[in-house]
Amino acid sequence: MNMLSKVSFSILSPKQGNRSFISILSKSTVAVKIEQNEEPQKNNLADYRFKYPEFLPDPKIEFRNSLREKLERKDMLARRTQIDIPEFYVGSILSVTSADKHTPGKPQKFVGICIKREGCGLRAKFILRNIIEQQGVEILYELYDPSIQKVEVLKLEKRLDDELLYLRDALPEYSTIDVNMEAEQLPDGAPVPVNSLKVKLKPRPWLERWERKNLKGVQDLGLPERFYKRAEELAKPWEKYDLMKEYMRTIPEEEQKEIYSEIQTHLQKLDITKRKMKRKRTFVQPVKLG
After folding, report:
1. CA 266/CA 124 separation, integer angstroms
2. Which of 17, 141, 164, 202 is a good FRET partner for 147, with 20 to 30 A between their CA atoms?
3. How far apart are CA 40 and CA 216, in angstroms?
4. Cα–Cα distance list, 34 to 42, 67, 120 (Å)
5. Alpha-carbon distance 113 to 176, whole Å?
6. Nearest CA among 59, 289, 281, 79 for reference residue 185
7. Global confidence as pTM
8. By three-state DSSP, how is residue 253 classified?
9. pLDDT tens-digit profile of 242-277?
């Protein structure tokens, strides 16, 4: 507004006509719009529940404590100023570098696919899985653990299921990740891709009764009909109509907006800082040839 007012006062002269006034004013308006577009657009609060689920309180009422949750959110924001915790989902491929007390001065790096993400507040956790030397290896990380030095997303994507624990019973190729994998960059503002891969499980026995889980990312299990009949007998399709149970299981939308509006400014500042650091890393100083 200040820029527009200054321009309008400077061009009000009898020598200039209305057309010149309109043209100059339109150019100044375009310049203001360009300057505004250079700033990162504000994220929708409705998307924060997917990008930052750990900021939401525990869905179980008996574990709720508003004072502790507010203090934890401050600690989480303070931790994010010290380390870049990127956006990731179940199915994304991550590289985590952490310190090990048994090998001081030698950080440990592990690359794997995220098969589970759970917890809230400072108790948020995620599990990475990889096949190393024909052996399945899983590491449980605490998201805000001070021993974590770096979290890098090598491939950002989602899967059809909320958990990928069935990869423990799947063929090894679905969990094998190259430890020297290069990071795949997505354009800014691009939607997170959804991988619709169907995983093939090994023959029974399995760690769990996967036919009872209503999984979308698994191929036909090829079980006898009695297994599916038993799964139908134990299913509870009426629970999705239980409004009280759904309310107790999830966080109301009004409460989500209140929480994320409280931390929105801090998260936007961290996002701006991360964008600036990303530009510095991608810029290559030209070398003057003699």
Report:
1. 19
2. 164
3. 35
4. 16, 43, 39
5. 9
6. 281
7. 0.78
8. helix
9. 877 777 778 888 888 999 998 998 988 888 887 777
